[in-house]
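Service request form, structural biology core

Requester: graduate student, group of Dr. S.
Request type: structure prediction, single chain
Budget code: on file
Notes: please return the result as structure tokens.

Sequence provided:
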Amino acid sequence: MESFQTIRLVEEPNPIRHIGIIVFDGVVLADIVGAAEVFVVGDKMISSVFAGSTGYRLSLISLAGGMVMSSSAVQVMTSSLPQADNHHFDSLIIASGSGNFDAYHDAKLIAWLQQAQVRVRRIAALCTGVFILGAAGLLDKRRATTHWALRDKLQREFPQIVVERDALITQDGEIFTASDAGMGADIALRLLEEDLGTALAKRVAQSLVTHQRQREAPHTHVTSHRVDDSLRNGRIHKALRWLEENMASPVSMNDAANFVSMSERNFQRQFKRETGLTPHGFLLKIRLEAVRQHLRETDLPVDKIARRCGFFSGEHVAKLFRKHLDTSPVEYRRSERALQPQQSQGATDPAELASCKGEG
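Core staff response, request fulfilled:
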């Protein structure tokens, strides 16, 4: 196995890799935070071996600089684009966000990218950010991916791109693309692995998972999506509770709408407005969260877990895991157990998993 002693910092003492994260209005904060956490944790691990060294420097950049409004209504401060022929970026990451749909029609931005890419080692784009690379011609005759709902649009607008329809992350040479918003950490881990090797990238990933677990520790037994009591629509709040309580059953969206005395069309619209998810998306999310907790905390077979959490079969769960988590249930269980060797294992029927009731 690769060790810290074999990472490339030995060959390149104290290199500084400048990462530019390009953002526009509507940027998804999870992309910024996720990528930043990976590089910051990576720096800490590097400095634990090579005292005083720093592997990465991060900058948020936008067309004009200044404050940029995120999709969460939180503003982030950015620097303006530097001169395309006089910058020091090692890598560029284009974050996902609704503003990218306007940005890829911006002639100034496209020209900047076309010139700047000559001086950077690699470029990554997340979800809608892939359209910016497409408009700049950087994906011509290359493989790329984007969100499943946008793949046909990407292919129509940029027929020179080889669109990968089943990939979460695609790398073609020095270009990386990710299929979904919120995958900043995933892309950053891929870049970190390329720079410093698999061993360190795995340690960074494990550290991030451990920190997340520690933050969630007071709520260990809450498997489902936490309902926000500030929701303006009381009926949507009630529907969330109902979906959580009935997630193991074969419920329909019409059932949920009827429960709160709303038409299905109005229910779908209000639900998305209040939660940011469709009712089906919310149900899938809490079911997958429950499956993951069963895998972590019990030795139940995957088929039985699937039925307890509202899925048809273990095979159905395996397909969803590959699509959404890029792993299998068996591998997920194995990796999670490896991260928590001291955790008690072997419970076969935990009563506390109240959100997965019945056999389905």
